[in-house]
Amino acid sequence: MGISPARAGDEPPVELWRQQMSGPAHSLTLPDVAGRLRDISYVAIDGQAVTEGDISLGRVGDVAGGRLHFPGVLPEKESPRPEGVPDDTCTRGPSGAGVSDASALWPKGRVPYVFDPGLPAAVRDMVGKAIAGFTAGTCVRFVPRTDERAFVRILAGTGCYSMLGMRGGQQDLSLGTRCNYLGTVIHELMHAIGFHHEHNRSDRDGSVDVHLENVTPAYRSQFQKVAAERNRLLGDFDQNSVMIYGNRAFSANGLDTLVAKNGQALTDPYAKTGFSGADLIAVRQMYGC
Ligand SMILES: [Zn+2]
């Protein structure tokens, strides 16, 4: 992935966040769902404002105007609850870190998608494997779109990114160069159904140390936690989650930025074979199945 072209001898995928490092960072300060000011930094990729390495907040023009889709972090300004979204009986409960806005969940766990015509066959095959994992282990169903209003368009854009949860209408999920790894594809689909990064969950300080001194300054805000009262914690912190980044995410100096308190190495999504057991449980809890 990344904006720079692959060079001979490059390690395969590079970390997801690397695409972030390749463009100038923009930032906004907005009140979060708890009313506290929060810095949001992003880079422009394919016209999308991308934060945390791979989460699209929406079109750059919209985001610059303060219209962001960042459920669970920023207040939703224009997201009436769509028909068929699970009610609170289905979505309540302790529990990965899911979005807390029910309006960002896909009704009945059904996620319509289309492939952009330019998406290579090998990537389509990998998406098929990822979808089979959701089907086998959860009640979430990715289904080819017919005429649904809200759907995910999967395209080969610049790098890998997704929106967080359902936005309504078309939302783009990019699997570009160097994104064709099962762990990466599952990671992006997990964002699309509403999962935050594991290292941003509100209770992460009990399980990982963040070394901000090693983080490129423009990207320190990528390590802000989701407000405690707003994320839905689905189980304990999971060092093996497909939603956690590796030890050197956003590192400015090659030193670790993210260190598990239990001493285990943290690997990037691409290096993972897929879901952790706890990821699957979290999906089932979030979608009430
Ligand atoms: Zn991500």
UniProtKB/TrEMBL annotation:
It comes from the Bacteria. Binds 1 zinc ion per subunit. Keywords: Hydrolase, Metal-binding, Metalloprotease, Protease, Zinc. Residues 75-101 are annotated as: Disordered. The active site is at E188. Signal peptide: none annotated. InterPro entries: Astacin-like_dom, MetalloPept_cat_dom_sf, Peptidase_M12A, Peptidase_Metallo. Residues 97-289 form the Peptidase M12A domain. CDD domains: ZnMc_astacin_like. Pfam families: Astacin (PF01400). Zn(2+) binds at H187, H191, H197. Its cofactor is Zn(2+). This is Peptidase M12A domain-containing protein. It comes from Actinomadura alba. The lineage of its organism: Bacteria, Bacillati, Actinomycetota, Actinomycetes, Streptosporangiales.
